[in-house]
Amino acid sequence: MWKAIIPLALAFVGQVAGQTVYLAGDSTTAPGGGGEGTEGWGQYLHYSLKIPVVNKAFAGRSARSFTREGRFDEIGKLIKKGDFVVIEFGHNDETVHTFPYYLEQAAKSYVAKGAHVLISSQTPNNPDESGVFVSAPSRFVDLAKTAAANAKVDYVDHSAYALAAYKPLPVQTVDSYFPNDHTHTAPKGADLVAQAFVRGLVCGGSLLSNYVKNATSAIEGACLK
Ligand SMILES: *[C@@H]1O[C@H](CO)[C@@H](O)[C@H](O)[C@H]1NC(C)=O
């Protein structure tokens, strides 16, 4: 009997009343997405969670400019012990050797404040752009994983889970999710990408998965290796 009760009790350790999930990212996550007709996936995450989501992602930002403009600091001032922060960049990042550095700095500063940090790999660009499904991840995917390992925080391979969600869909459907360019999703695409994040979250077993309101069996897709 105790064997059954102890893991259950442990699952509640770290749950503090009034917890919030903060999102740091670029236009693919942000409110309003990348402009007219698009939306960031972060706007759909709250449909799957039991705790509030505050979307602090901002269009056009890289891990570096998010740092320099004080946007990571702004989140740092808001977080309380037990809150969650999801950090997802890559689309606007150029200087490869500094990308993991900025993510690690932000992650470590939040961990020091008692937050649970998740580094999430960037969303994929339209994988059906050329008419054949291309699933090669951006080089920033591996770098995000490295940053998570270095900062000793959770990692969600959002890129891989989003690709897995796009894969079974007809080319025309996937194309319709990218109305303006190959990066920014229409609201329906953003919803799918948010669900893919949640699938990755549940499969990875981060503490935040305790706050997913959907039954695991109700979430589309399989766990990836
Ligand atoms: C969870 O359920 C809500 C509807 O209650 C839905 O909007 C959301 O997309 C679902 N999440 C996943 C990951 O399937």
3D structure, described in words:
One of its GO terms (molecular function) is hydrolase activity. InterPro entries: GDSL, RhgT-like, SGNH_hydro_sf. Belongs to the 'GDSL' lipolytic enzyme family. This protein is of the alpha/beta class. The chain has a single domain, classed as 3-Layer(aba) Sandwich (Rossmann fold). It is built from eight helices and five strands. It has a five-stranded parallel beta sheet with strand order 2-1-3-4-5. Strand 4, helix 5 and strand 5 form a beta-alpha-beta unit. The two termini are 32 Å apart. It binds 2-acetamido-2-deoxy-beta-D-glucopyranose.
List the secondary-structure elements in sequence, H or E: HEEHHEHEHEHHH
- Strand order in the sheet with the most strands: 2-1-3-4-5
Determine and state the CATH class. Alpha Beta
On the 0 to 100 scale, the average pLDDT is: 91
Q: Count up the helices.
A: 8
List the ions, cofactors and other small molecules found in this model.
2-acetamido-2-deoxy-beta-D-glucopyranose
Q: What is the number of strand segments?
A: 5
Q: Spell out the CATH superfamily.
A: SGNH hydrolase
Radius of gyration: 17 Å
Structural class, by secondary structure, is: alpha/beta
- The CATH architecture category equals 3-Layer(aba) Sandwich
CATH topology: Rossmann fold
Strand content: 5-15%
Q: Low-confidence segments, ≥5 residues, pLDDT <50?
A: 1-15
Summarize the amount of helix as a percent range: 25-40%
Describe the main β-sheet briefly: 5 strands, parallel
Quaternary organisation of the protein chains: single chain
